[in-house]
């Protein structure tokens, strides 16, 4: 028994020359690519450095971040309501939610943005009133649907459709016995969702939500087609004057990579937070198994 333990304690992974050779090849190719990119004058690195913190670019960056935060917040809130409605036993709520998700997931985001921006061609006025009855108030559509409004509405409604499915999947991952137990203790369905179901579902909801947030950062570049001065539109306005197309696109690429890298770190931290319970349970299980083995050896 002691000899077996000694052998296991000294165990190590065998040396793999093929693996080392593969690492050398990959690093050599990466270093060669980095050297080519750094020394290629066509990339215009001095131009990239000169415009990286340009006020126009920074303003576009703020617009991109603002659109992301607002659209994502609305999308998550509306997506939660849609997910609950789709899981409801009420046929009307479930049907309306399913129809919303079907439409906004089934049409391209770019088409949706252009549609909202040009809504006035279909409805010159937006009115509030009783169907087939009197109108209480009306507004000119062009006054309501500005590029900012069209961008927020288009991004938020599209995001809500995807978040609804993500949240619904997370809620379905929680054992139904949890809701039944909550009802047995006299909790309402809303309180059970808020206090028991949703916190447990977060382990399944957070990773895809992080992916959606990163996708939203990149999706905001589509609002440039409706003259919204986001990051991409800002660099386009500069290279339309300077004709430095590739260097200015590199400015946008580097900013997008910087933002998504920060978001990846934040997503990993949140995932670790919600996985603490699983890790602690696994550690307790391992400790219990080790104690059982020790007790068996003592006998």
TrEMBL record:
Topology in the lipid bilayer: Multi-pass membrane protein
InterPro entries membership: AA_ABC_transptr_permease_3TM, ArtM/GltK/GlnP/TcyL/YhdX-like, MetI-like, MetI-like_sf
Main location: membrane
Gene Ontology cellular component terms for the protein in this record: ATP-binding cassette (ABC) transporter complex
Keyword Membrane carried by entry: yes
Locations listed in the record: Cell inner membrane; Cell membrane
Biological-process GO terms, alphabetical: amino acid transport
Alphabetical list of Pfam families matching this protein: BPD_transp_1
UniProt KW keywords: Amino-acid transport, Cell membrane, Membrane, Transmembrane, Transmembrane helix, Transport
Family matches, as PROSITE patterns: ABC_TM1 (PS50928)
Transmembrane regions listed in the UniProt entry: 20-38, 58-84, 96-117, 213-233, 245-266
The ABC transmembrane type-1 domain, residue ranges: 61-264
Domain of life of the native organism: Bacteria
GO molecular function: transmembrane transporter activity
Assembly: The complex is composed of two ATP-binding proteins (GltL), two transmembrane proteins (GltJ and GltK) and a solute-binding protein (GltI).
The family this protein is said to belong to: Belongs to the binding-protein-dependent transport system permease family. HisMQ subfamily.
Biological role stated in the UniProt entry: Part of the ABC transporter complex GltIJKL involved in glutamate and aspartate uptake. Probably responsible for the translocation of the substrate across the membrane.
UniProt protein name: Glutamate/aspartate import permease protein GltK
Organism: Pseudaminobacter soli (ex Li et al. 2025)
């Amino acid at each position: 028994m002691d000899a077996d333990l000694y052998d296991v304690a000294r165990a190590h992974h065998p040396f793999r020359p093929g693996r080392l050779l593969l690492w050398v090849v990959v690093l050599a190719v990466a270093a060669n690519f980095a050297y080519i990119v750094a020394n290629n004058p066509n990339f215009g690195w001095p131009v990239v450095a000169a415009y990286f913190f340009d006020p126009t670019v920074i303003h576009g960056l703020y617009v991109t971040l603002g659109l992301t935060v607002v659209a994502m917040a609305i999308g998550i809130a509306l997506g939660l309501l849609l997910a609950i409605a789709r899981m409801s036993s009420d046929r009307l709520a479930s049907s309306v939610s399913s129809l919303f998700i079907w439409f906004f997931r089934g049409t391209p985001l770019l088409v949706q943005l252009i549609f909202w921006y040009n809504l006035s061609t279909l409805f010159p006025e937006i009115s509030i009133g009783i169907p087939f009855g009197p109108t209480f108030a009306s507004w000119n559509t062009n006054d309501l649907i500005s590029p900012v409004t069209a961008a927020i509405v288009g991004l938020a409604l599209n995001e809500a459709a995807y978040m609804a499915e993500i949240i619904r999947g997370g809620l379905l991952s929680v054992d139904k016995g949890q809701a039944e137990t909550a009802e047995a203790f006299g909790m309402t369905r809303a309180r059970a969702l808020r206090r028991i179901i949703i916190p447990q579902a977060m382990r399944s909801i957070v990773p895809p939500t992080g992916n959606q947030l990163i996708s939203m950062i990149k999706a905001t570049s589509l609002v440039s087609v409706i003259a919204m001065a986001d990051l991409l539109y800002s660099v386009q306005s500069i290279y339309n004057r300077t004709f430095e197309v590739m260097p200015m696109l590199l400015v946008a690429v580097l900013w997008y990579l910087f933002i998504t890298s920060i978001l990846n770190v934040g997503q990993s931290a949140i995932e670790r937070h919600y996985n603490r319970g699983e890790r602690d349970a696994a550690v307790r299980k391992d400790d219990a198994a080790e104690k059982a083995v020790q007790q068996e050896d003592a006998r």
